[in-house]
Amino acid sequence: MTTDWNKVIKIMRSNSADDFIRNVTYQRIVKRINYPTEVDLSGAAIGILRLQDTYEMNTKDIADGKILNSKMRTVALTAEDCFEIGRVAYSEHDYYHAILWMQEARERIQKETKPTANLESILDHLAFSLYKQGNLKRALLLTDELYRMNPDHPRAKGNVRWYEDLLEDEGIRRADMRRKVPPMNNPRDKSNLKDTYEALCRQEVPINTKAQSRLYCYYKMDRPYLRLAPFKVEIVHQNPLVVLFRDIVSDEEMRIIEMLAVPKLARATVHNVVTGNIETAFYRTSQSSWLGSTEHEVVKRINKRLDLATNLETETAEELQVQNYGIGGHYEPHYDCSRRENVFEKTKNGNRIATILIYMTEPEIGGGTVFIDLKTSVSCTKNAALFWYNLMRSGAVDMRSYHAACPVLTGTKWTANKWFHESGQEWRRPCGLNQLDQERYVGDLGAPEPKRHLNIRSEKARK
Known about the structure:
One of its GO terms (cellular component) is endoplasmic reticulum lumen. It comes from Brugia malayi. Its main location: endoplasmic reticulum. The structure is a single chain. The chain has 463 residues and is an alpha+beta fold. It has 15 helices and 18 strands. The chain folds into two domains: 2-176, Serine Threonine Protein Phosphatase 5, Tetratricopeptide repeat (Alpha Horseshoe), CATH 1.25.40; 194-462, q2cbj1_9rhob like domain (Jelly Rolls, Sandwich). 36% of the residues lie in helices and 16% in strands. β2 (231-237) and β3 (242-246) form a beta hairpin. α3 crosses α5 and α7 runs antiparallel to α8. The longest helix has 17 residues, at 38-54.
């Protein structure tokens, strides 16, 4: 926490630890190591709130270090930690979470022999949050308590009068303002999109059994090279097609890719459709770097393999993007392609026609890929690659490709993805006779469907 770091700085300065300070300064300047800032604190707190909502975690359990069904246990949070999380929510006008965490901070400070937080600040923030969520009587009672603790508090006396006036405006007599307190009201902002996204991340959306019965696995052998070494393909969704290539890369290849990517990792960015600028965003929290074919033989080999797997030209595709998602890392629902009509005016290679996403690791909990409109969830499977088309064969945006990366709860998620562009695909994925024509399988040019196999499991699953 940034508050702890500020204490460390004070201690260092008070002890006049000149050599230590010089060393820290050297590390910061030469090795570009930055100290934690308020931005880091805010990002970490918002990440905790995101995980809490997505995986429906209890505030007390999180504060106690209990992470759902995970074997991992973390250090319990102090009252100060809970207050800081609540304060970040409060500053974002997120009074739903502010109440949850301020209440937890209040309970914890009462059990601490040496208080780590300021009870007056907790009550002050909690009272106003309760008021904003429609708990006027509760806000008044807490402010009464605050005023009794400190009659000189800069806001307590004025807020007592203010809450009393508001209750009087509601027709409540002064004698009843502190009696018959109704149950707590703390609703969370509702959003059908967010509810669907979070339910998919928890894998709670019912599966359509009829649609699932039509899914199958097959060996992809439609290229001469693949006769000897076919790809194992699992169809995850039909209409539109989403498939999973099993065991498409090896552990050693992914180790090398990670080794190449780490020195170049930087905060992932997004394209602002309003300003046209490339910028960081709260809805995408990960680190990424880009690897070209000339950087290592393994990158070149993987690009060739992705060509064989997808039947799409890689010469006009983007470089391999490697991404690392830490705890809370996510990417909210989005499209990979541009929805503008003048894409070729912006880039000579046109729009992103398809995406292939390689799962380099498997987080213990979370991190899956979900398709909102398709009501489909795909868990991270190490060394597998998820593939889908962003555009119809006509070139129109397939609005059903709306997808998201679920937040990582425990473990670390590494991925490598490649975006294929329209240019160069004229013979590989030509337009159909009908505007709505789409693939039944990868590389579908009208031939019969591949021979079905009951199940194609990963090498790991067979052992």
